[in-house]
Amino acid sequence: MFRIGMEEIEEITKVINSKQLFKVNSGELRESENLEAEMREKFGVPYTLMMTSGHAALTSALIGMGVGPGDQVIIPAYTYIATAIAVVAAGAIPVIAQIDESLTIDPDDIERKITKATKAIIPVHIQGFPCAMDKIMAIAKKHGLLVLEDACQGDGGSFKGQRLATIGDAGAFSFNYYKIISAGEGGALLTKNREIFERALIYHDSSAVAFFGTQLDGVTTEPFCGQEFRTNEITSAILRCQLKKLDPILADLRANKKYVMDALADDCAFIKSNDIEGDCGTTIGIMFGTAAEADRFAEAMNAPGSIPGKTKKHIYADWASIMNKRGAFHPAMDPFKMEANKDIIPNYTKDMCKASLDILCRVCYIGVNPDWTKAEMDAEIAKIKAALKA
Ligand SMILES: Cc1ncc(COP(=O)(O)O)c(C=O)c1O
Structural domains in the chain? Predict the structure, then answer.
């Protein structure tokens, strides 16, 4: 979260004074309804659904796509575990593909991982680094697969001029505390597909959607049991303010990232970018020749958590519940034990994506702040240059 303050406080105050905190209401503010409309307008998609989290949006999108038992979904070796958990929540099986030196999913490895059971691909725009969406969409088209963009770390970014989360069949944003814009928690699903929207609408709020307001007007999908992932008016009021701040934050992040990278151009190598213009600018990735060099740099920077291969959260080898195939508490609900999945479960091993681990342990991140002054950036550059010589 980068910028939050008086604007949000004023809008929340209005919501509390209105006493209309439920998403579906007949008051004047209608924060959630307006937010969904503003998201549609900003991102140029006909359907948006605000939800409690990015995970909720990913899971609802997969259900909307008809993903379930008997299906494999290809995800990258480097992402937050929530991506993999969403696949399992839909009853399907995650298949883990390598990343390349952009730190995003390797399109060549997607092709190698496709089987008869593959139904969808989830490219993850990790750290706001755009995936190679042109190649991924071409592969999906060739093999008849669906694409769900996990843009939970890439709010507002783009690939070749098109906003992330609007290129595939559906996309998901997260607005949790660590994201570019935030309400503490929150998520959004974006899609151009009416069928995906209707099913996700019912799944994400399967009790209230039928009984409150006119949400089911014009919906032809028969109601079915799902979850309770609906948002609320306070979260939506915050996010309406945050949405207005998104592009200015991105512009400052990108300018600051460029300033620092330009100053370091002769001192180090950087990770590859699939589209530096569309990159969200939150993170600079310095690429080293060996893991030992990355370790030395991280130590000199006094930033032990800056090596992406060592965060203990974001690489497949650390996803204990997935690696140990514990897909649910009740065995009958566990996709890893379901008859429909019995022939499509890969053998997950800690070293199955060694090439990805090698890349991730040779990279060091520098976090970018959109509010850095020039003096602060110059001090950061001097610190990095000194650490590179250490
Ligand atoms: C890549 C990625 N996917 C999904 C999620 C899930 O988002 P949330 O925490 O809003 O459920 C996150 C959250 O950090 C994430 O980083």
Answer: 6-243 (3.40.640.10)
CA–CA gap between residue 131 and residue 84 (Å, rounded): 17
Instruction: Determine the atom of ligand 1 nearest the C-alpha atom of 57.
Output: 11
Of all residues in the chain, what percent carry a pLDDT higher than 90? 94
CA angle 355, 363, 260 (to 5 degrees): 145
Query: pLDDT at residue 1 above 80?
Result: no
Q: 72: CA distance to ligand 1 center in Å? A: 20
Q: Which residues sit opposite 189 in a β-bridge?
A: 49, 172
Do residues 92 and 58 make contact, with C-beta atoms less than 8 angstroms apart? Answer: no
The vertex-150 CA angle with 77 and 111, nearest 5°, equals 50
The model scores a pTM over 0.85: yes
Residue from 91, 95, 105, 98 nearest 62 by CA? 91
- Strand partners of residue 286: 270, 364
Nearest to 307 by CA among 383, 361, 387, 384: 361
Reading the block at residue 309, the tokens are 């291969």
DSSP annotation of 177 reads T
Residue to probe by mutation, ligand 1, list 87, 148, 152, 155, most atoms within 8 Å of CB: 152
* Tens digits of residue pLDDT in 74-132: 999 999 999 999 999 999 999 999 999 999 999 999 999 999 999 999 999 999 999 99
| 197 contacts 214 by C-beta, under 8 angstroms | no
